[in-house]
Design the sequence.
C-alpha cells in the first residue's frame, strides 16, 4: 500500500489522523494542525485511513464522511466496534439534521459542515483532546507548575521556563496524564508521528532536559523499568 506523507513537528504533544480525499482540504488541515502543535498523519481514502487507525494510537481523528474505498461512517463504525475511544471529528458536506444525527449516533464526538473556518476546527479538535483526557481547563496545573496549552508557555513558581518545542511536547503529554504512570512506548506513540526518525533513547534524553529546566523539587519521577510519572511523590 502506498501511503501519503506525514507531517512531523517537534512541538507536538498530541497525535492526529486526517482522513480526507480532497487534497487541498487534507493538506490545509494537516499542515494547520501541525502548526498548532499536533503530530499529524494523513490518508487520502478510507482504506488507507483504516490502516493508519488500526496501526497507530491517535488522540483525535478528523474524518471526512464521503471517502473512496471505505466511507467515513463505516470506518467510524469499525473503530467503535473495536472499542476504540479515540475522539472523532466528522467533516461533512451535507448540512442536514439526519446526517448529523446519524454520525453522532454511530459514535462521532463532533462534526463540522464544509466549508468551515480553520480556527473553529482547531478549537473543536483541542476541546476533544481535553475531553479525552478529562481536562477542562486549558491551563494544566501540577503543584506549582502551570502549562498554558493554548499559548504553549510554562511557568513554575511564577517564573517563566523556556523550553524547546520538543521539551514542551513531552511535558504537555505527561501533564495531561499527571499522576499516572506513562511508559516510554506511550510517549513515543503519542509524541511522534508515523514518519518520525527519532532515536530510541530520545525519551530519556528529553526527560533529563526537562528535569534540569524545571528545577527542584523534582516533579518528574522515574518508575525504573516502566516509565515516568509527573507529579505526586517519588
Sequence:
Amino acid at each position: 500500500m502506498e501511503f501519503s506523507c506525514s507531517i512531523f513537528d517537534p512541538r507536538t504533544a498530541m497525535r492526529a489522523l486526517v482522513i480526507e480525499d480532497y487534497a487541498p482540504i487534507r493538506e490545509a488541515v494537516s499542515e494547520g494542525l501541525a502548526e498548532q502543535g499536533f503530530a499529524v498523519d494523513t490518508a487520502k481514502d478510507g482504506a488507507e485511513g483504516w490502516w493508519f487507525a488500526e496501526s497507530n494510537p491517535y488522540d483525535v481523528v478528523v474524518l471526512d464522511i464521503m471517502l473512496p474505498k471505505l466511507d467515513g461512517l463505516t470506518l467510524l463504525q469499525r473503530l467503535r466496534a473495536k472499542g476504540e475511544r479515540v475522539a472523532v471529528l466528522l467533516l461533512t458536506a451535507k448540512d442536514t439534521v439526519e446526517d448529523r444525527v446519524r454520525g453522532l449516533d454511530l459514535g462521532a464526538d463532533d462534526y463540522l459542515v464544509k466549508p468551515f473556518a480553520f480556527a473553529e476546527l482547531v478549537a473543536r479538535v483541542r476541546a476533544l483532546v481535553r475531553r479525552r483526557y478529562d481536562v477542562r481547563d486549558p491551563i494544566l496545573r501540577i503543584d506549582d507548575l502551570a502549562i498554558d496549552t493554548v499559548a504553549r508557555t510554562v511557568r513554575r513558581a511564577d517564573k517563566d521556563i523556556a523550553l524547546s518545542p520538543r521539551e514542551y511536547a513531552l511535558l504537555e503529554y505527561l501533564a495531561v496524564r499527571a499522576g499516572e504512570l506513562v511508559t516510554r512506548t506511550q510517549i513515543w506513540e503519542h509524541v511522534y508521528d508515523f514518519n518520525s526518525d527519532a532515536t530510541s533513547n530520545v525519551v530519556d534524553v528529553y526527560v533529563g532536559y526537562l528535569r534540569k529546566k524545571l528545577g527542584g523539587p523534582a516533579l518528574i519521577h522515574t518508575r525504573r523499568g516502566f516509565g515516568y510519572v509527573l507529579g505526586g511523590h517519588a
